[in-house]
Every structure is written in C-alpha cells, then in structure tokens.
Amino acid sequence: MKGRKVKAWLVLRGTKISDVARAVGVDHSLVSHFLAGRRRADVVRNYLEQIGCPVEYLGKRKEAA
C-alpha cells in the first residue's frame, strides 16, 4: 500500500488520521498501522474509498468500466 500518498491526500482534504479513526470507530493507532502497511483494516480501506481516496493509493487497481 502506498501510505504516503494516502496521507498526502488526507492532508489536502484537511482530514486527520484521528478523523478517520473516529469516523470508523477504531483507535488512531490502527489507522496509522494500516497506512504504514503493518495492519490490514478493511473498515479503514472501505471508509477511505467511500470518501473518495483514489483506489490506486490503497493498493487496488481501478476496475474496468
């Protein structure tokens, strides 16, 4: 996963890691570990996708239209 790109994207949106954690009901450290590639957290990944994070940043390829 390309955590740096996701973090940069969050900064551009004005969203903090703690905002993501609060929105999905998990601890800040889980989001941090997810972004660093040390933990799998589908709930975090799904939330980031829902708020518009490019799927390429999350390590997924775009689906063909």
Give a written overview of the molecule.
This is Helix-turn-helix transcriptional regulator. InterPro entries: Cro/C1-type_HTH, Lambda_DNA-bd_dom_sf. Residues 5-58 form the HTH cro/C1-type domain. The protein contains 4 helices and no strands. By secondary structure, it is mainly alpha-helical. It has a single domain (3-54), classed as 434 Repressor (Amino-terminal Domain), CATH 1.10.260. Helix 2 (17-24) crosses helix 3. The longest helix has 11 residues, at 3-13. The radius of gyration is 11 Å and the shape is globular. The N and C termini lie far apart (23 Å). The mean pLDDT is 90.
Describe the SSE topology.
Elements: H1 3-13, H2 17-24, H3 28-35, H4 42-50
Helix pairs in contact: 2-3, 2-4
- Helical percentage: 55-70%
State which percent range the strand residues make up.
Answer: under 5%
Order of helices and strands: HHHH
Rg over CA atoms: 11 Å
Flag low-confidence runs: none
Amino- and carboxy-terminal Cα gap: 23 Å
Number of domains: 1
Organism: Desulfolutivibrio sulfodismutans
InterPro entries: Cro/C1-type_HTH, Lambda_DNA-bd_dom_sf
Protein name: Helix-turn-helix transcriptional regulator
Domain HTH cro/C1-type: 5-58
